Amino acid sequence: MRTQHETGRRSPLAVAALGSVGFVALLWLVEVVDALADHRLDRYGVRPRSDEGLVGILLAPLLHGGWLHLEANTLPVLVLLFLVLATGVARGLQATAVIWVVGGLGVWLVAPSGTVHLGASVLIFGWLVHLVLRGVVSRRAREILLGVVLLVAYGSVLVGVLPGEPGVSWQGHLFGALGGALAAFLLAERERADV
Question: How many domains does the chain have?
């Protein structure tokens, strides 16, 4: 019997770790470029109900409002993206795509005009809600346990879906979370259909 090393394939956990670290490296690289460009990339965040703001749906999660913003998002991105990818890269990428689009479109539709929304927190809130609900929807004990642990560890941040702190896009948090819930239900339906 050949081992994974002999066949050249990496374990799912290794792929999840590489994906998570790679995405964080991309976020830091984008912020370096943004800093060198005098933060001109930030204008490519979501700008509600403007034609130019539609580009932000694709780019906003990659952009941050400075180093402190990026530092605050780095550990949650590493942990939550790893967990989303660990049970299947394809499923994790599908969930991320749903969260990315629902989060960005929601912000574009309802956030106040004349504002710019950016940062990976839309994904963080989406991944968290997705992981919490995934076990409930799939009825898998291991995923339910993971959801409970995450709810205990990170559940308090979900208050961020409510209006509160000035300068923080609660709309991004809310629609990211809604995207995570939608992804949990859509992917569970797809898995049941494939059985």
Answer: 1
